[in-house]
Amino acid sequence: MSPYQAFFTNRPTEEIAKDLLGRELSYQSPVGRVAGLIVETEAYLGEQDSASHAYNGRRTNYSEALYGAPGTIYVYQIRAHYCFDVVVQDQEEPQGILIRALEPTEGLELMEERRHQVGVNLTNGPGKVGQALGLVDRHLDGQPLETAPLSIDLTKRRAPQSIGVSSRVGVNQRGSHGNAPLRFFVDHNPYVSKMLKRDSDLVNHGWGIEMSLTYQELLVTLPALLEAGSVPNLVGEAGIGKSALVAEVAKRMGATLLTTVVSLAEKGDLALPVPPLTKDSLVTTSRFGTLADVKYGYSTTLLTLLKEAEARPGQPIIWFLDEFNRGNAAVQSELMNLVLQRQIHTLTLPEEVHIILAQNPDPTMDAAGDYAVTPSDAAVRDRTVRLKMRANLTDWLTWAEGEVDGTPGCNQWWLTTCESTRIS
User: CB 3.0–4.6 Å: which of 2, 176, 186, 311 could bond 160 by disulfide?
Assistant: First the structure.
């Protein structure tokens, strides 16, 4: 299985449907390329789903593509229009995600010509999407997205400000899954089907706004976000000064700073199950035999953090999770509850603790190099405040001309060279 195919498996179909929001779908038609950001999807969960084409094991030549490899295109016709699902999960597991709506990004005139429409009505429904793309038959049915002229760019994603959830449109509500919350959309995006104009965000279309700030600007912004209970997510090139920034923020806040380099962590580093140490930890049952009440042993970082919170109640503690998106998927998954729920197993972080993430550039940014990042879960991206740190020569010179613990920030020769090209 290719990495592209792997995107469409190994996690719940509902999660994949949400993660497709904000990714660009394109079609290289014979007369030109058209594309748009996916803003609405619906998940169909296979043979147990009363609204699925595979419900109760129904399998026909028409729906055979639905049983294909992950990332296969399944095209079908509804009322003279062609719609399509992306097949997800392992082969022979007929689950799919319907692409219900797009926000056009390329080929707008071609879409308008095909639809005889302008504005949000171009692509705010699955049949409209098919017509705007130029799908006039089922010739793409069964083809892999990875190599077909119809494809989805998985290397980058525009993050929604929030994701709406509802029951699916046009399915039999009396079925077992008729009212299941399996429709996902970019909240307030005007291209979402059934989105009323009064509920539409006509300025930002419901997309999250990424702030690009300098070192000095972030010195002001970070403490404000932490005091508001938000989780800042710093993104910037290696060596731009993320660690120095967090250290300075901690110093100004009078906070204790603890750092975990996520790229060096392994699953279980923060908390490992510990076998029972006394007979009181064993529970004897008549039906299930003797069971162990397993506790968890916590890492030095966590224990230091807890001791500090007890010793200095009310004083801030910053836990800096550096290189977050260079940690492997298992480590990021383990840390997700820490970031979102402030919990590790049964342990809840003290209120004194503030979390800051730092990430290297991903494919959505223009970066100087390939950082081999592991894309973070959509929930982490959607529930942290993403701050792009940009370089500024004046800021750097301010740091370089100062001292850190009595040591000059930089060699005088470099200062002289940079001063000659200072940009204000």
Answer: 186
